[in-house]
Amino acid sequence: MASPKPLSRFWEWGKNIVCVGRNYAEHVKEMRSDVLSEPVLFLKPSTAYVPEGAPVLIPAYCRNLHHELELGVLLGRRGQAVPEAAAMDYVAGYALCLDMTARDVQEECKKKGLPWTLAKGFTASCPVSAFVPKEKIPEPHALRLWLKVNGELRQEGKTSSMIFSIPYIISYVSKIITLEEGDLILTGTPKGVGPVKENDEIEAGIDG
User: Fold this and answer.
1) What's the predicted TM-score (pTM) here?
2) Which helix (H) or strand (E) holds 43?
């Protein structure tokens, strides 16, 4: 039965944006963090969504806004405590996403041992591409992601370098948070994160 809400416009009705931190070893190194045995999770509200082509907003309290390029995994049905072996059956498709981060604010939060919501959950902090159906990406762990700012290549990474695989992430998250149709999981960023300024133009892509 067709969904009454089109997955092609998931940003208009999807509820949860679940983000995975520290999922590429090179990015962990550039952030001077430790590789952990379990994924780091944080949430963005649905008001963080920005559809492709719309402007990203810089929060008034941020002085150092960074881009973080990520492969987003879109859920096609509800799942709770999903076994890893069955996890890909819950995937409807993918989107290229940005986890915009108020880096100066995040560093202060880390120093004080506080949550990252101010740094990660602000309005327009999750730009997303058009929906890509699962059938178009038969092997999501064999992609090259890239990001340019004003035409200059800044970020580049292969999804084969993920520490935690997509099935593992879906299974892990679904044991904590019941996932629903239209929910988006951001799978972590490769190395090369960096600052953007007002009027910069961000372009990103998935090879193939």
Assistant:
1) 0.94
2) strand 40-44
pLDDT tens for residues 30-60? 666 776 789 999 999 999 999 999 999 999 9
Q: What is the mean pLDDT of residues 79-86?
A: 98
CATH label, 7-206, candidates 3.90.1300.10, 3.40.50.880, 3.50.50.60, 3.90.850.10: 3.90.850.10
What distance in Å separates the CA atoms of residue 11 and residue 143, rounded to the nearest whole number? 23
Output b/e per residue, 6-19; b: 16+ Cβ within 10 A: ebeebbeebebbbb
Cα gap 158→189, rounded to integer Å: 10
Which H helix or E strand runs over 118? helix 117-120
**DSSP secondary structure letters along 156-193:** EEEGGGBSS-HHHHHHHHHTTS-B-TT-EEE----S--
4 strand-pairing partners = none
* SS3 assignment, position 26: helix
In this structure, what DSSP letter does residue 141 have?
T
φ, ψ dihedrals at 184, nearest 5°? -120, 135
* Long-range contacts of the stretch 195-201 (C-beta < 8 A, 24+): 195/64, 195/65, 195/66, 195/103, 196/56, 196/65, 196/66, 196/67, 196/149, 197/65, 198/58, 200/149, 200/150, 201/149, 201/150, 201/151
What is the spatial distance between Cα 35 and Cα 126, in angstroms, rounded to a whole number? 24
